[in-house]
Amino acid sequence: MAGIIRYGSYLPYFRLKRSLFGAGRGERTAASYDEDSVSMAVEAARDALRGAAVPDSLIFATTSPPYAEKLNAATICSALDLPGAIRSVELGSCSRMGLSGLLLGLDLAQGGGSTLVCAADVVVGAPGSSRESLGGDGAVAFLTGSNEDAIAILKGRACATTEVVDVWRLPEDQFVRQWEERFGADVLSPIMLDAIKRALDQAGVEPDELKTVVLDSANPRVTAAIPRALKLNKEQFANPLRDLVGRSGTANAGLLLACVLDHAVAGDLILLASAVDGCDVLLLEVTDNIDSGRPERSIERWLASKRDDLSYHNYLKWRGVMPFEPPRRPEPERPAAPASNRSEHWKMAFVGGRCQSCGDMNLPAQRVCVKCGAADQMREEPYADAIGRVATYTLDHLAYSLQPPVLAAVVDFDEGGRISCELTDVDPAQVDIGTILEMTFRRLYTGQGIHNYFWKARPKR
Fold first, then answer.
1. Cα four-point dihedral sign 140, 141, 144, 149
2. How many other CB atoms are found less than 10 A from the CB of residue 132?
3. Range(s) within the chain of domains with CATH label 3.40.47.10
């Protein structure tokens, strides 16, 4: 039977207090200037794949793709060091596609395959809009399969598609538009209720048997009538994370599910429903394998690891909403594409080489060992999950950055090897010699329409 084998999540380090733009209490997650939906999907997927077999397929859902026409999923595959024979699919245009992707992954699992389903979004709203204040950035990943290791199995499902002008964005639009909420709710609420009832009927489950219910929609009024119609009590509803994260687009339903799975026990029945341009519903039953399938980082751990002093001014700069004067100095030279391509395995997947003659680690891998001089004795070794420590560092107040100062460090890894790289998601006042670091996949810069990704180090979260 098809089910979820493992899962992972990711929430950015930075938070934007809603009081900064007059939107009341709470805060929203804000992706850093060097993050996008692809880099966040990689972070979530790393936790989902840790200790798991290589999947047959990858599905990526987002409404904020770094490339409008290019397979963003290919970048995710490269960063995760997945084989070139993998099948990849990309879903977009609607924030319901995160849950749709999970249903598709479960469908593929029925045929005996395994699928990595990633959903991630950087949610940008017009200044002063509800989308800006109520949105949030994040990512989630699920590994689906049909073997006996499933931590949650599919019990029932239902889908619906309808044409409604509720939330939309034209290709030339910078920001999403939304019609008056009551009109969209009049159309989508009955559709959502019908889909939920069909999923419950298919599973032979009554509403009062549900342990947890996750209701998601880009229009908050769509879900308002559902609890009363199904006679659900408030204890059955999952924490919407509204005051801590915000609605994270395609990742939202999955992030709420991940939060539920972090504390679920065997036998729990979980219903998820996402209503945008129709509705997707799935009903899961948690199995005895739940403890073994939980990731290293829970949603609570991501929430606790944060920096909440991001200014609204800097946030608008990061999103390209507000123009600003660039530094009055020449742009630094950027790495050339041909040179980067020659070391693609190192650049995208952060794979080094260990000398089979002396055991020394070479980062990046070399034909000739830098320690003993042995030629062609390198064995590739993944280093994306390696733990490092600050050997020395410097603060550069002259180099241009959207989050100055630039913090460059020499990093020594516990398993051997040394690199010089930039630190990210860091408070400079809290960095010192010996600070424990981990690697994170980030977008270095964009030049001539090409996004250039590489790995940075950050204090362990």
1. negative
2. 24
3. 3-318
- How far is it, in rounded angstroms, from Cα 450 to Cα 70? 11
**Packed helices 252-261 and 97-110: angle between N→C axes, nearest 10 degrees:** 60
Q: 382 pairs with which residues across the strands? A: 351
Three-state secondary-structure class, residue 348: helix
User: What distances in angstroms separate CA 439 from CA 205, 209, 315, 383, one per listed residue?
Assistant: 44, 43, 24, 8
C-alpha angle 52/55/57, rounded to 5°? 155
Identify whether the C-beta of residue 430 lies closer than 8 Å to the C-beta of residue 446.
no
Distance of CA 24 to the CA centre of its chain: 26
φ, ψ dihedrals at 236, nearest 5°: -85, -10
> Along the chain (461 residues), what's the average pLDDT of each consecutive run of 10 residues?
95 94 88 98 97 95 97 97 96 97 96 95 93 95 91 97 92 89 90 98 97 96 94 94 96 98 98 97 97 95 96 93 77 57 80 94 92 93 96 91 92 95 94 97 90 95 94
- CA dihedral (220, 226, 232, 237) positive or negative: negative
DSSP 404: S
Query: CB-based burial of residue 313 (10 Å sphere; 0-12 exposed, 13-18 middle, 19+ buried)?
Result: exposed
Residue written as token pair 């699920």: 142
CATH code at 3-318: 3.40.47.10
* 175, 126 contact by CB (below 8 A): yes
